[in-house]
Amino acid sequence: MKLIQTITLAAIVLFLAACTNNDETQQNSGSATDNVPSDTLKTTDHGVEDKSDVGFEMSGNNIEEAENIPKQEKSAIIAAFDEYMAAFNEEDIDRYMKSISKKPEGFNYDTEKADVQDVFKQFDTIRTAENVTIVKYDETHAQVFAQLNVALEQESTGAKLDSKGRQVTVFAKEEGKWLVTSVYFIRDTTE
Q1: Per residue in 116-127, pLDDT tens?
Q2: Contact between residue 10 and residue 37 where contact means Cβ atoms under 8 Å apart
Q3: Can you give the C-alpha Rg of the chain in angstroms?
Q4: Minimal CA–CA distance to 170: which of 14, 34, 63?
Q5: Using CA atoms, how far apart are residues 98 and 109, in angstroms rounded to an integer?
Q6: Quick one: three-class SS letters along 84-118?
Q7: Which of 1, 48, 120, 146 has its CA 20 to 30 A from that of 64?
């Protein structure tokens, strides 16, 4: 049991670049890799001010797609989300960092790179997304909701941890590309 707690603690430290504590539900926010469970520890404020405005509450099951998305932009946003997920799963740091905003609103770019490199060295992590839906859109920002499954395995010990949750990935359009600028993740507690 201590091994799983140690792995969970290490994963939380590595994955959370910025987060907040909500009294009603525990919500991680900030790092583009916020998606490791933390039901044994409270999240803390790392001094990052969230400038995003998530367009809906991350509770309940009624997720509706935004109505005002041009077809070409919808394809580009979903492709950007798919690239962000694939680059992480393939542990390609250069490719992954190309999917991240150079001026993110929810985390620090350089810290994110260092944290993700540490994760790639220590863990095999596979994230899969279901029900990917653009829930908010304007010409400069988009919010993509997804139900995530996270399979984490520590390479040195073989210890495994699987988790499910809901994530909103916020994208900003910079120089014609959709890039991750902040992430909100809530772990499902009914596993």
Answers
A1: 999 999 999 999
A2: no
A3: 16
A4: 34
A5: 11
A6: HHHHHHCCCHHHHHHCECCCCCCCCHHHHHHHHHH
A7: 48
